[in-house]
Amino acid sequence: MDTRKRTILQALTEDYINSAEPVGSRTLAKKYNLGISPATIRNEMADLEEWGFLEQPHTSAGRVPSDKGYRFYVDELMSKAPIGHELLERIRSTYQSRVRELEWFIHQTAKLVSDITGYPSIVLAPSWEQGIFSALHFVGVGEDSALLIIRTADGFTQNKTVSIPKELSLAQLNALAQDFSRQFAGVSMRDLQNYILDPLSTSLFEHAALWQTVLGWFLTEGSDDERMTVAGPLTILNYPEFNDINKVRRVLGFLEQDKAVEQIVHSHPADGVMALIGSETSIEDIQDCSVVTASYRVGQTVVGRVMVVGPRRMQYAYVMTVLEVVSDELSQALKWA
């Protein structure tokens, strides 16, 4: 694509992103000082439409970018958006809290991203099944019951109220829990679910039924059903593309479907920040949307994603910069959690 067409496509795309109104040749000539006549711009736009970079809405003389046009804009034309000092400090202060629990970070991240970008956000927590077992302990909540708390190496916790065996006191139960933690710390949750207890470990083998119950709970209750946190779903109503109630229903439905979000992650496993535009998501309900996603880490391992869902005319440069900063800060916070 020659320089003139690139300039026109960039100007048209950015104008449409900001205005939500189809863009005509006269608008480009007046607003962007391109140094060429509206007639020349119109001819260039016709070529861009023929090549699949622009589309013409049914009732408008103006043009809008197609998925192909947005993709070219993001990959070839878009400049990286700067992030102001005040916003940077706001992001960093979120992760300087004394709270060190993963769940807190996940919920705060989802809220922060939606508040800053003005779009619905999704944060996928680290997968429970892929986590590394760290420790478990019991907290008494009654004469014959206790709260079982299980923690993974990345800081994720699960808890459940369980019955205390009659032959064991809470202190004895926690002594066994310490023994269990020492033996199995560092084992993946997936392997732990099928682990055969070592019969040479007398104290554990003596209470094998108890630990098999615990391992059974890992399998049934320690699932990824609550892995996804969503914030700001109704912000989608702020954009004229979603004046159609059926479109709104489809987007809100997608935001409630863990499996659909997981499908995007599994289909696009790339590290870093990435934009998926319209049909690139492969999800029918959000064909009118784009999704920007960024991975975050615990140590050197990618453990989750931060995502933004918005109209195809999303402020890509701004959103991608925000997600890059947020994912880096979240990764640093989890490193010390």
Automatic annotation (TrEMBL):
One GO MF term: DNA binding
Family affiliation: Belongs to the HrcA family.
Protein name (record): Heat-inducible transcription repressor HrcA
One GO-annotated biological process of the protein: negative regulation of DNA-templated transcription
NCBIfam families reported in the protein's UniProt record: hrcA (TIGR00331)
Keyword Kinase included in the entry's annotation: no
Pfam families with a match to the protein in the record: HrcA
